Amino acid sequence: MAVQVRVPTILRTYTGGAKLVEGTGDTLAALFLDLDSRHSGLRGRLVAGDEGAELHRFVNIYINDEDVRFLGGLDAKLGDGDEVTILPAVAGGGVDALPVPSSRPGHRRI
């Protein structure tokens, strides 16, 4: 069964620059094994552990816009025509990202 996989920019070095690749598998784990056979190293960026038993915590995977963490993780079932989206987790911000208060005379401090 064919599954379309959307690949984020940061992982496109594994897919020869392709942002959309096709794979097969009846589960997410099987799909990642199939993808890794043609795009070596991709699976290692998505799954953790010696056995590859869980998703890396810094990557989010969606099947048809549903978070796989609520669909069974790597055991999530796939059907023909499903769309899998890989999104790297985004973090950041903090105190350094806040505007710097002005100390010039005549300006209000924030």
TrEMBL record:
InterPro entries: Beta-grasp_dom_sf, Mopterin_synth/thiamin_S_b, Sulfur_Carrier/Prot_Modifier, ThiS/MoaD-like. PANTHER family: SULFUR CARRIER PROTEIN CYSO, SULFUR CARRIER PROTEIN SLR0821-RELATED. This is Sulfur carrier protein CysO. It comes from Frankia canadensis. The lineage of its organism: Bacteria, Bacillati, Actinomycetota, Actinomycetes, Frankiales. The gene is cysO.
